[in-house]
Amino acid sequence: MRTNHVIHAAVAAAFLLAATTAAAPLPRSVGLEMKAGPNAAYATRHDGIRLSVPEPSEAARGESPSVAPSLTDLYVTIPSAEGGERRLRVESTGHLWDERASNRIVLSGKHAARMRSEAERLRKEHYGQLTDWNEAKRLLPRRSVFSITDIESGLTFRVQRRAGSDHADVQPLSKEDTRIMRRIYKDGWSWRRKAIVVGSEGRRLAASMNGMPHGGDGIPGNGFSGHFCVHFLNSSTHRSENPDPEHQLMVYKAAGRLREMLNGSPPLAQARYLAAAMDQNETEIVRLMTEGMTLPESAGLVAATAKFASFRAGKIAESKRDPVTELTAVVELDAVFQSRGKPSRRETVRLTCARLSPLSPWRLDDCEFIPVRSRSSRRS
Asked: Which keywords does UniProt give here (predicted)?
């Protein structure tokens, strides 16, 4: 019988909260960074925070958990006793996590609360505001000019909205703006979605863009043949009346509210978002979605996501749900994917979702890749 990782995560969290620590070390000055992922260059910084952090040898109990931790987007840089620096991540509890050592550092209740407070404050400053398309198109009328900032690189360029009723069709304002946009896409064009912050008249709106010129032109001399699309909350593509999962995932990333979105998503939506994250090589989103799995299972899915050249999901269906408690559900999706340097494969991805109660959020509990021919399971 499969062990329920959601229950394991809850037990681990309860143990952590109940744990007592040794005498607190002396406070030291640390630096904080709010950013969308460990490799993001775009960050909002706050230096000079006084924090009591144990040295690695002083780390409290539970320092090598078997369950993937619940991590925030706040990073801490701490001067070490040897003269170097330690880079840690803040957990949802406010305690610290050393990703290299897979080691938890438990802070005092006061300092853990301070970390949670700083995370909330910096998050509001760093990200864009979640804005429905009906409001966004009013704030950004046709012919309006606004800025776009890539939430990963921090590169910013200017665009003009030219058209679009279901989303914004925009064009770079000048050749220099086109050059900056190409840098964001590594000097090429791509349909890949990017989380962005739109800046206009003092407002910062969470949005998503693709990087492929298409359709009609309108700004002569800007070096961009056509337009590209910018999406907001609940906007849709030309092909569908429904919001595109990949764009919506990036909108929530740009708002710093991915955890909130996932916590409110039923199993079918979880499967769609996981497929979208895998296709976009969004390793940090996959890590977030697999919190509560064992560390090896979570790390395996994250590593696989980094290697995908493409991941296309076909039919998605919920195949089984516990009829009595409704605390577990199984979703299967048909997937065609290709890892870099390898041939394309078609497999069924079977996802088991679980929750602690009917009012608790669904979480991914297990993921199996099943070859279509043999149907024998291969776990990531």
From this structure: Signal
